[in-house]
Design a protein that fits this description.
Elements lengths: L4 H9 L18 E10 L4 H4 L5 E7 L2 E8 L2 E8 L4 E8 L2 E7 L1 H8 L6 E11 L2 E10 L2 E8 L19 E10 L4 E13 L14 E4 H7 L5
């Protein structure tokens, strides 16, 4: 079985847009969804472009999030639980359905390798999906990128599982950079819709028909080291 490497790499490095604000005692936690468009920047090889996500849909409910990456080749869904710190990746591509479970220990091992970031909040603002956002210069390992965050959304899931874990507010726009063997692929990820709504609890469960396996089992199946 073969799954396109670029898609899997996107799953690994995409911060899953759980760049969510910390809990507030006054504001009511957000329940609903945020949709993001993904637009390649610069010239991208046509074969690679056909593998890249075109949209990311994030659903929030309590301490859980569901992230759907929509690609021309299929879907990748990530289920996150901040309480248990368990992550499940659902892959539905080329007739294969797999549910890959990452344990708390595996996630913490990855997080320990993420370097500390520094942030400088600028004076520039702009409206994104109806929300006022501030420009933030985000620097990690000497590399600075621009992100736009809003303080007007409160979601009780901190960004604990990705490289933006130091960001205190919801990110509605950022530049995703994916390193490949030949060059970097840059994609603008920008929110297009933020909607408050009731989200069904069933959306955070593994659907029937998926083969469940651990991340180490998946790596062995793909020919990689455990």
């Amino acid at each position: 079985m073969k799954i396109v490497n670029v898609v899997l790499l996107f799953v690994a490095v995409f911060f899953s847009v759980n760049c969510v604000a910390q809990k507030s005692k006054k504001a009511k936690p957000f329940e609903g969804h945020i949709f993001y468009n993904v637009t390649p920047q610069g010239e991208v090889d046509a074969s690679l472009s056909a593998q890249l996500p075109t949209q990311v849909k994030i659903y929030f409910k309590g301490d859980k999030t569901r992230e759907e990456k929509v690609t021309p080749m299929g879907s990748v869904v990530t289920l996150n639980d901040i309480t248990t710190k368990i992550q499940i990746v659902l892959i539905d591509m080329m007739g294969q359905k797999m549910a890959l479970k990452a344990t708390k220990e595996e996630i913490e091992k990855v997080l320990a390798k993420i370097p500390t970031a520094t942030m400088v909040v600028g004076t520039e603002t702009k409206q994104i999906a109806g929300y006022n956002c501030k420009k933030v210069d985000f620097t990690q390992e000497g590399k600075t990128t621009t992100i736009y965050t809003t303080e007007d959304l409160v979601i009780p899931n901190s960004n604990w599982q990705n490289e933006y874990k130091d960001v205190p507010n919801v990110i509605l726009e950022f530049l995703q950079v994916i390193p490949t063997q030949d060059a970097e692929i840059k994609m603008l990820v920008a929110a297009t819709e933020v909607k408050k709504e009731k989200v069904k609890a069933e959306m955070f469960l593994v659907p029937a028909g998926y083969q469940e396996m651990s991340m180490s089992e998946f790596k062995k199946m793909m020919g990689g080291a455990e």
